[in-house]
């Protein structure tokens, strides 16, 4: 049993979303003591020059305006830090991740906070966590040469230290939606808790 799950939904669709259904089933299957929910259908702000300047100002030198600019990012990072398992409902939009998910990544991938630069290259600071991605697509096969979402999600999670990444795929749903979704539901039931 996971102690704390961070449940992120990246689908713009609040109703009728395969990734929302699957990510919810994963969370229920894992039976956590605590669930933190983050719905990216409620838009996150994009990075701005002011935000970047605040982020690269040493923490002890930030003024109140800079602290305000970083407050949401700090909250998102704290959610990641608190979680043992991260469950992400991630649709493939136009061969890649939704813009909302990219905005979340931009707000949580912070040098000195979730990763550090070392002599041997970047090192993720969020080690020892598990991530489960519920990925759905209309026509793109997961891990195919035209899937720029799954590899990116694995890479960026690894970049911040989360290397234990499992994928539950409901891909190419346009061909046979019910059979594809049922296969993904069956995979959820087989997940190790």
UniProtKB/TrEMBL annotation:
<keyword id="KW-0285">Flavoprotein</keyword>
<dbReference type="InterPro" id="IPR003680">
    <property type="entry name" value="Flavodoxin_fold"/>
</dbReference>
<protein>
    <recommendedName>
        <fullName>FMN dependent NADH:quinone oxidoreductase</fullName>
        <ecNumber>1.6.5.-</ecNumber>
        <ecNumber>1.7.1.17</ecNumber>
    </recommendedName>
</protein>
<dbReference type="Pfam" id="PF02525">
    <property type="entry name" value="Flavodoxin_2"/>
</dbReference>
<comment type="similarity">
    <text>Belongs to the azoreductase type 1 family.</text>
</comment>
<dbReference type="GO" id="GO:0016652">
    <property type="term" value="F:oxidoreductase activity, acting on NAD(P)H as acceptor"/>
</dbReference>
<dbReference type="GO" id="GO:0016655">
    <property type="term" value="F:oxidoreductase activity, acting on NAD(P)H, quinone or similar compound as acceptor"/>
</dbReference>
<dbReference type="InterPro" id="IPR050104">
    <property type="entry name" value="FMN-dep_NADH:Q_OxRdtase_AzoR1"/>
</dbReference>
<keyword id="KW-0288">FMN</keyword>
<comment type="subunit">
    <text>Homodimer.</text>
</comment>
<comment type="function">
    <text>Also exhibits azoreductase activity. Catalyzes the reductive cleavage of the azo bond in aromatic azo compounds to the corresponding amines.</text>
</comment>
<dbReference type="GO" id="GO:0010181">
    <property type="term" value="F:FMN binding"/>
</dbReference>
<feature type="binding site">
    <location>
        <position position="11"/>
    </location>
    <ligand>
        <name>FMN</name>
    </ligand>
</feature>
<dbReference type="InterPro" id="IPR023048">
    <property type="entry name" value="NADH:quinone_OxRdtase_FMN_depd"/>
</dbReference>
<dbReference type="InterPro" id="IPR029039">
    <property type="entry name" value="Flavoprotein-like_sf"/>
</dbReference>
<feature type="domain" description="Flavodoxin-like fold">
    <location>
        <begin position="3"/>
        <end position="190"/>
    </location>
</feature>
<comment type="function">
    <text>Quinone reductase that provides resistance to thiol-specific stress caused by electrophilic quinones.</text>
</comment>
<keyword id="KW-0520">NAD</keyword>
<dbReference type="GO" id="GO:0009055">
    <property type="term" value="F:electron transfer activity"/>
</dbReference>
<keyword id="KW-0560">Oxidoreductase</keyword>
């Amino acid at each position: 049993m996971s102690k704390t799950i961070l449940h992120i939904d990246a689908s713009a669709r609040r109703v009728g979303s395969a990734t929302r259904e699957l990510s919810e089933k994963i969370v229920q299957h894992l039976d956590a003591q605590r669930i933190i929910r983050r719905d990216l259908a409620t838009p996150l702000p994009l990075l701005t020059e002011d935000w970047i300047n605040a982020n690269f100002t040493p923490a002890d030198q930030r003024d109140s305006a800079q602290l305000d600019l970083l407050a949401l990012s700090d909250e998102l990072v704290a959610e990641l830090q608190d979680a043992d398992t991260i469950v992400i409902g991630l649709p493939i939009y136009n061969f890649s991740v939704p813009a909302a998910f990219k905005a979340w990544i931009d707000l949580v991938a912070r040098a000195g906070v979730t990763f550090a630069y070392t002599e041997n290259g970047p090192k993720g600071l969020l080690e020892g966590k598990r991530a489960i991605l519920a990925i759905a697509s209309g026509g793109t096969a997961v891990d195919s040469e035209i899937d720029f979402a799954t590899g990116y999600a694995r890479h960026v999670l690894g970049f911040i230290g989360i290397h234990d990444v499992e994928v539950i795929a409901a891909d190419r749903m346009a061909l046979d939606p019910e059979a594809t979704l049922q296969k993904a539901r069956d995979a959820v039931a087989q997940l190790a808790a």
